[in-house]
């Protein structure tokens, strides 16, 4: 049971990362993806300190949306944006999800194995269908608007790339206090994020066709 719990705890976020990576028709450098994933792990430590300062009790857990999403955003803005490999909008979604799930993987281990009075297996299952998809969704939404910003230089997209994930994360955390209402919200934002991802995927298909036509000519 311990191995299965660990497999779910680590395996689910890694699986989502691989799905996003392989949905990208123009793959990102493996070393940069790995470094971005570990950057997500590293920001868990300042996030924990900041959350400790601003969250006095569970009813204020929505404030974690601010600290955690800002730190993920800073990785995209200061670490990913200057990279030469960051050369198309879909890349922002790939790196946005990767940093988010690097964060979520470490957080997941902490939650699942830090509460001896709770069933770790059940907790790993619950988080696999709730907190992990939430972090992935925030990564897609952040990446989508950051990608638009990076290739249009529109400040409104830069603002949205930070504000929308914060709002999603904060609302999700707030709703966890009210039975399973947070799951309805999560499904809705997942559908929204799926649409954003599909938009960039369609752009890649169009680009691939154009490249093919140029090669023929």
In short:
This protein is mainly alpha-helical and 217 residues long. It is 81% helix and 0% strand. The model has no long low-confidence stretch (mean pLDDT 94).
Instruction: Name the poorly predicted regions.
Output: none
Shape descriptor reads globular
Order of helices and strands: HHHHHHHHH
Main sheet makeup: none
Q: Termini separation (Å)? A: 59 Å
Derived structural class: mainly alpha
Residue fraction in strands: under 5%
Oligomerization status of the protein chains? single chain
Number of helices: 9
Give the helices and strands, then pairings.
Elements: H1 2-23, H2 30-42, H3 44-54, H4 64-80, H5 89-113, H6 120-128, H7 131-152, H8 155-175, H9 181-216
Short descriptors:
single chain; 217 residues; mainly alpha; 9 helices; 0% strand; globular
Question: What does this protein structure show overall?
Answer:
- By secondary structure, the chain is mainly α.
- It is built from 9 helices and no strands.
- The chain has helices spanning 2-23, 30-42, 44-54, 64-80, 89-113, 120-128, 131-152, 155-175, 181-216.
- The longest helix has 36 residues, at 181-216.
- It starts with a helix and ends with a helix.
- The relative contact order is 0.15.
- The model has no long low-confidence stretch (mean pLDDT 94).
């Amino acid at each position: 049971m311990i191995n299965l719990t660990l497999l779910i705890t680590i395996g689910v976020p890694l699986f989502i990362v691989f799905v996003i990576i392989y949905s990208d028709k123009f793959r990102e450098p493996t070393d940069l993806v790995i470094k971005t994933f570990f950057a997500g792990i590293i920001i868990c430590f300042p996030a924990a300190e900041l959350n400790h300062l601003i969250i006095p009790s569970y009813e204020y857990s929505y404030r974690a949306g601010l600290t955690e999403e800002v730190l993920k955003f800073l990785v995209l803005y200061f670490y990913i944006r200057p990279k030469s490999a960051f050369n198309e909008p879909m890349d922002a979604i790939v790196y946005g999800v990767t940093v988010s799930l690097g964060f979520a993987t470490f957080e997941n281990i902490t939650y699942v194995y830090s509460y001896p009075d709770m069933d770790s297996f059940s907790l790993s299952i619950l988080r696999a269908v709730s907190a992990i998809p939430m972090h992935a969704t925030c990564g897609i939404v952040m990446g989508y608007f950051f990608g638009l910003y990076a290739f249009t230089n529109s400040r409104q997209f830069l603002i949205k790339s930070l504000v929308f994930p914060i709002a999603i994360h904060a609302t999700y955390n707030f709703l966890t206090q009210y039975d399973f209402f947070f799951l309805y919200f999560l499904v809705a934002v997942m559908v929204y994020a799926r649409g954003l991802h599909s938009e960039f995927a369609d752009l890649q298909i169009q680009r691939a066709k154009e490249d093919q036509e140029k090669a023929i000519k």
